[in-house]
């Protein structure tokens, strides 16, 4: 009898899980630019790496740091933590499949406004709701190290003054009230009005929005 009850409970739990998954797929179809087939494919990949259905910050940071040979591991971990935070919408410390897909949607198929909002959260290192020149410069330096892995420490140090000038130029263009920090509205609307800022870089690439 006990075994039969256990089987019934297990079957009920499985049906509930399937219903929840179908509901999640339906929601993601509405709020992202992925098809049902694509969402299911992503789900298989997600569960392969995260059988529990929850991606931890430690797992995410470890994978990210290991993906790039160049740059200081501590610094790369800082950037990875920021990326994780932009995906972790509810601040739970883990990323579920829905959060993961919403984040990937912005990066892969998001509009310019969506990607700019995401970039803003990336640059807001302390989560204050605004970006300082130092925060912008810090992330630009990290992105530069990752984008140009062939450069050694000496070459990276030579480019720092240029990146400093880039950060200051962006602030001059976007800081409308002159208070020394950028708010979300200033950042997003400013770049939409001045799209040439997206092409600013010391090597001809694009660092302001992550590609």
UniProtKB/TrEMBL annotation:
Residues 75-110, 111-146, 162-197 form the EF-hand domain. Transmembrane segments: none annotated. SMART domains: EFh. The keyword Transmembrane does not apply. InterPro entries: EF-hand-dom_pair (IPR011992), EF_Hand_1_Ca_BS (IPR018247), EF_hand_dom (IPR002048), Recoverin (IPR028846). It comes from the Eukaryota. Keywords: Calcium, Lipoprotein, Metal-binding, Myristate, Repeat. Pfam families: EF-hand_1, EF-hand_7. GO terms for molecular function: calcium ion binding. Belongs to the recoverin family. This is Neurocalcin homolog. It comes from Branchiostoma belcheri (Amphioxus).
């Amino acid at each position: 009898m006990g075994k039969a009850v256990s089987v019934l409970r297990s079957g009920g739990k499985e049906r509930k899980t399937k219903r929840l998954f179908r509901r999640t797929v339906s929601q993601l179809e509405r709020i992202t630019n992925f098809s049902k087939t694509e969402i299911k494919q992503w789900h298989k990949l997600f569960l392969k790496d995260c059988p529990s259905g929850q991606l931890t910050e430690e797992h995410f940071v470890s994978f990210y740091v290991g993906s790039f040979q160049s740059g200081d591991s501590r610094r790369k971990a800082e950037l990875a933590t920021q990326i994780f935070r932009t995906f972790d919408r509810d601040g739970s410390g883990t990323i579920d499949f829905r959060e993961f897909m919403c984040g990937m949607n912005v990066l892969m198929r998001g509009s310019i406004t969506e990607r700019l909002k995401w970039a803003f959260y990336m640059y807001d290192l302390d989560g204050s709701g605004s970006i300082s020149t130092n925060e912008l410069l810090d992330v630009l330096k990290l992105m530069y190290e990752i984008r140009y892995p062939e450069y050694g420490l000496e070459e990276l140090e030579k480019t720092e003054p240029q990146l400093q000038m880039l950060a200051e130029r962006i602030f001059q263009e976007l800081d409308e009230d002159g208070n020394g920090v950028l708010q979300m509205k200033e950042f997003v609307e400013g770049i939409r009005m001045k799209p040439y800022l997206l092409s600013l870089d010391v090597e001809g690439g694009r660092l302001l929005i992550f590609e």
